[in-house]
Amino acid sequence: MKSSKDRFIISGYVIIVVVKTTTSGTMINGNEKSIEHLKRFGLTDYEAKAYAALVSVGTSSVTEVSQLCDVPRSNLYAVLEKLSTMGFVEIQKGRPILFKARDPKDVLEEVEKQRIKELGESKGTLVKELEKVMNKQKTNAEPTLVWGVRGHEAIMNKIGEMIKRSKSEFTVNIPNLEWLEPNYSHLESAKERGVKVRIITENKGNLPKYQRIGLVRTRDKIWGIDVLSDEREILVGPSPPLVAAWLDNPEMALHVKDFLGLVWKDAKVMK
Fold this sequence. Notes:
Blueprint: E1 2-10, E2 13-21, H1 26-29, H2 32-39, H3 45-57, E3 60-61, H4 62-66, H5 73-85, E4 89-92, E5 98-101, H6 104-140, E6 147-150, H7 152-165, E7 169-173, H8 184-192, E8 196-202, H9 207-211, E9 215-219, E10 224-229, E11 233-238, E12 243-248, H10 250-266, E13 268-269
Parallel strand pairs: 7-8, 8-9
Antiparallel strand pairs: 1-2, 3-5, 4-5, 6-12, 7-10, 9-13, 10-11, 11-12
Helix pairs in contact: 2-3, 3-5
């Protein structure tokens, strides 16, 4: 802020008047980065410029703030009032009315906490509402998409994804327990979160190990792989697992559940 002196001669006296002057927008134009960052905290362009101006000069009147930023003076009072309601500015009543910027660290931390809280609440509501829409769409969608999975590793990875998504029940009919080894930790996690794990396999391999994470029954010969998760997802394929079909469909899942129920009853109970 610069000062200039003007001389006036009145009745033989020389009167020197000191006038404070400034270049409108000087402070703001040199701090565009701060303005853009402030706008990310929910401020409009005018609000960000007014707050930045107040931070630079401290307690000031509308007139003084208007000299530091290119916010029209006709809009400035309303802008500062809005900043006050948002917690960025304090108002000191008097003549003239003065405005003071709150400490940037304090006010921005408050805004950040409030935004995180609001986002958390919105996230919870949105997840519930959008999952309803998604589940309805899945149920009504026709035709059902059947995805082909090729290769032993890809099939085992897909089974791992199904295990991780399971919430209540997971059943697998598989000839060789060793094929499940890459997903053993996922099965352990499923058991810990309350998923009922059922395994039907041939009478070979480390059966006691798998009895620790679920119910195990055996059959003399199993010709393919059948996997069911939560009466929604299914994966079926021949043995050895070089190709398989996966789909997410409740109606088809019920069909596979009936089949696996019969297989489970026919299988031998492990002691």
